[in-house]
Fold these 2 entries.
Entry 1:
Amino acid sequence: MNCIFCKIAKKEIKSYLIYEDDISIAFLDINPLSRGHILFVPKKHYKTLSEIPDGELAELMKSLKRVLNIVEEKLSKNYNIINNCGKIAGQEIEHVHIHIVPRYGGEEIFLWKTHKLTEEEAEDILKRLK
Ligand code: 5GP
Ligand code: ZN
């Protein structure tokens, strides 16, 4: 498969690896949003988190937690965890990955443009989700 993250997982492509175990790897993003922006990646190819079988996902969360512990200890206790799922949501690499973006203060990122939730919108969405 021509997947860049599969190739990184198999060490066919160089990465700045910060963590590895049997099921996952974590390495530096080559276009960091902040210092120490890390990608946490399952070694097995899945496109989205929801595709991963429950047992595997549970194990992956344990691995992710180990990476978070490293980030908290060595970089910052403040960080954003992001998963872009689907093209419209910004997923460029179709191998599921979780961004860990350490925050130190003053970063001009994640300026979300929100709107006030109306009664009508809330009721409509609740109807769809139930
Ligand atoms: P997405 O937009 O799919 O959520 O995020 C993909 C991320 O992978 C981007 O932040 C991009 O900078 C990073 N990326 C793309 N190609 C490579 C690569 O070859 N090596 C590394 N380390 N990161 C990559
Ligand atoms: Zn892959």
Note: The CA atoms of residues 49 and 57 lie 8 Å apart.
Entry 2:
Amino acid sequence: MKGYFIVFEGIDGSGKTTQAKLLAKWFRDNGYEVLLTKEPTDTEFGKLIRKLVLEGSIIDGSRISYEAEALLFAADRAEHVKKIILPALREGKIVICDRYLYSSLAYQWARGLDLEWLIKVNSFAPRADLVILLDLPITKSLERIRGRVIKTEFDKLVELQRKVRENYLKLAEMFPEIRVVDAMANIEDVHNNVVTLVKHELLGL
Ligand code: TYD
């Protein structure tokens, strides 16, 4: 059995984590071995990055540069690819990853970094077989994540989310493995659409 590498992408609140779990269950129920993973990773490295990003990338009281942030995400990814993703694919597992390379392209590009540079520093990372981009209007995403953010950060967040969504849609034009799925529907309908896509694109069903 051949391993497949499937990635979920989308802005915050688009439902990636829920859909990644549901797809993992669907594969397991159909007799496949699955590795469900995410970025930033659950390793000590990933936890550090998550902390830096979620706490506003503060080191010693000052903000770290967006370049440094991009390189930290890339370093976490390098470890993830080499030690977790590629070994699982070699064992024939289905690897489902909640955020990957494409998050760096969409978010760090939205921070104002050069897209070509981002592609270059991530060039060690193999492209996925299928990227499911859960697309959602910003107003809907904000409704879903409102409870998660503090008020003073909210306006900055709206602008960032808007840019990130735009970037993802531009990336979908550039990377043929990216498929856009409407994330407005209810959880079950989105899941069914994801399964249809996977069957059609990867399993030849
Ligand atoms: P996420 O896993 O969505 O956070 P949580 O599960 O804690 O809600 O990722 C944290 C943030 O990191 C998210 O806003 C997107 C951002 N991010 C990047 O900017 N670049 C990257 O390469 C990755 C993987 C994530």
Note: The pocket of thymidine-5'-diphosphate is lined by residues 12, 38-40, 50, 53, 73, 99, 103-104, 107-108 (CB under 6 Å).
